[in-house]
């Protein structure tokens, strides 16, 4: 990472309309609350192209709003090669997306690609953020709580690593 470059954190799921935009919004909120917005570049994307240009899933909008987060301005996009230069931390929600991200990473990528649940303080044996897309709206609420806790852990990890 270059000097004076913001710390790039990219959240990734399959379609970029449920989990990763929620994670982006929650993590950005935590960063802002900590007064660290000037240090971070936070974004999200999907590994698949089928939702490019779409807004987050209405159920994700409702769930994040219930917890006090606003993700209405986010627009789905697909990961591209430039993301590996821009983001030091690429955070997939599940193993399948992690496999895709590591397979596509350019030779010499010096950042970290780690499952989001690695940073959850009490993951209860979970290694992935479950995809609620094919579930009912009620499945989104516990996902938001899990993302909140993993966001706290990730922010603490980055703050310690970078001394901020």
TrEMBL record:
<comment type="similarity">
    <text>Belongs to the low molecular weight phosphotyrosine protein phosphatase family.</text>
</comment>
<feature type="active site" description="Nucleophile">
    <location>
        <position position="13"/>
    </location>
</feature>
<dbReference type="Pfam" id="PF01451">
    <property type="entry name" value="LMWPc"/>
</dbReference>
<feature type="domain" description="Phosphotyrosine protein phosphatase I">
    <location>
        <begin position="7"/>
        <end position="157"/>
    </location>
</feature>
<protein>
    <recommendedName>
        <fullName>protein-tyrosine-phosphatase</fullName>
        <ecNumber>3.1.3.48</ecNumber>
    </recommendedName>
</protein>
<dbReference type="InterPro" id="IPR036196">
    <property type="entry name" value="Ptyr_pPase_sf"/>
</dbReference>
<keyword id="KW-0378">Hydrolase</keyword>
<keyword id="KW-0904">Protein phosphatase</keyword>
<dbReference type="InterPro" id="IPR017867">
    <property type="entry name" value="Tyr_phospatase_low_mol_wt"/>
</dbReference>
<feature type="active site">
    <location>
        <position position="19"/>
    </location>
</feature>
<feature type="active site" description="Proton donor">
    <location>
        <position position="131"/>
    </location>
</feature>
<dbReference type="GO" id="GO:0004725">
    <property type="term" value="F:protein tyrosine phosphatase activity"/>
</dbReference>
<dbReference type="InterPro" id="IPR050438">
    <property type="entry name" value="LMW_PTPase"/>
</dbReference>
<dbReference type="InterPro" id="IPR023485">
    <property type="entry name" value="Ptyr_pPase"/>
</dbReference>
């Amino acid at each position: 990472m270059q000097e004076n470059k913001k710390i790039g954190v990219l959240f990734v799921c399959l379609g970029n309309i449920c989990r990763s935009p929620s994670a982006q919004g929650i993590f950005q909120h935590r960063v802002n609350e900590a007064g660290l917005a000037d240090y971070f570049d936070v974004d999200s994307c999907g590994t698949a192209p089928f939702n490019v240009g779409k807004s987050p899933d209405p159920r994700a909008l409702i769930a994040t709003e219930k917890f006090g987060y606003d993700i209405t301005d986010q627009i789905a996009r697909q990961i591209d090669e430039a993301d590996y230069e821009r983001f030091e931390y690429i955070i997939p929600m599940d193993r399948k997306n992690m496999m895709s991200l590591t397979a596509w990473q350019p030779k010499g990528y010096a950042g970290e690609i780690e499952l989001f649940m690695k940073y959850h303080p009490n993951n209860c044996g979970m290694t992935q953020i479950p995809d609620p897309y094919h579930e009912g709206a009620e499945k989104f609420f516990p996902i938001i709580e899990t993302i909140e806790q993993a966001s706290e852990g990730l922010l603490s990890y980055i703050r310690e690593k970078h001394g901020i």
